[in-house]
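[INFO] parsing input record for Multiple sugar transport system substrate-binding protein
[DEBUG] input buffer:
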Amino acid sequence: MTKMWTKTIATSALALLTAGGVASALPMTVDAASKPVKITFWHAMSGPYQKALQKQINEFNKSQSKYKVVGTAQGDYKTLNQKIMAGAKSKTLPTMAQTTYTQVPDYEKNGIVQDVDSQIKSKQGLSKEELNNIYPGFLEQSKYQGHYYSMPFSSSLRVMAYNKDILDKYNLSVPKTWDDVKKMGETLKPHKIAAVGYDQSFDAEWQAMTKAAGKQVITPSGKVNVASKQSKKAMNDLMSMVKDGTAKTAGADIYGTTSFVNGKTAVYMLSSAGITATKKAAPDNLHWGTAVMPEYQGKQRSMLAGNNLVLTSQADKKQSDGAFAFMKFLISDKQTEQWAEDTGYIPVTKKAVKSEDYKNYLDKNPLAKAATDSLPGAFADTSFVGYQEYRTDMLESIDSMLTKDTKPDNALNKLDKQTTKIIKDNK
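[DEBUG] output buffer:
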């Protein structure tokens, strides 16, 4: 009985298959299984940068069939941050997002992001050789409390632009040290030209000089050195140049580009990402170049900036793996080199910088060379919960020195206490 019943069922099933009853459902099952996992990606790129990013998204999507990245511009970084915070509350976060690395600790505290440690350690992750190929400063940016919470993407650092016409006219050389800059100022001051132009704030220069002197303003362990003797000396050296007229701040212009391209300053400290804007602003008859930041107390340091890519907490396992696959694609030698050529940002890997293609690019675009020459001395600012509050206090501190004649030592003592409290309150 049992054998006959089983045979009947088998025969009926075969009939259904032959008739197409089950067969008609099979293509639907196959299609569902082969459909790529959608990876939603929020970013803050616009104009030519958005175009360059979309090109890389398209290349990734064509390179494999398992995932499909869909990028969406969300305005500037402030707007993007607002949308990420709103998305976290409404549970509508994308799979991954672009953000400044200093924002990551606050995102982690609020449960907005998840680390990518497991993806890095997986078979499809990053080998020790691949990690070593990434410049240390970029890996430093990507870590928080010993875990990788982001991957590097659009990176820049501080470089020095110099006006060749002014240097030639007054028989001056490109300054190698901050002492050289100060001496240059003494030569140029009678001619109403400032030796150096700062942006509205010169915190990046202050932190780089403090780092060169052997202290980090805030260490990764949370130790605050804002009021250290090294920090105070660096700030006093910067401010003394402003006070004696050998340095000029941007003021309401925010950036020192205008003064530089109009011949009001001989050198200008700027982000490597700002070279493109400076080229557009410069008159055709201006001859200028770029160099690494001046040494301070025998060492050259340059602070990194830019943004990273994060994986949000609302991404499931398949989405997380797909997002990381895209992150890994972007930091591959070929892609990071192409991104640098298309946008002016810096390649994040050593092999990309040393590649023949990038060397050829630098030969044609010599203004970009100073950024890659600065990578050995590059370092990341320390990020922590409450960083944005600290940065607001820091900018107000520098402004008080410039507009209220607050003594640097007093301003830094106050900032040291404010920063210590921020870190303590957020533990």
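[INFO] The two ends are 73 Å apart (CA to CA).
[INFO] shutting down worker
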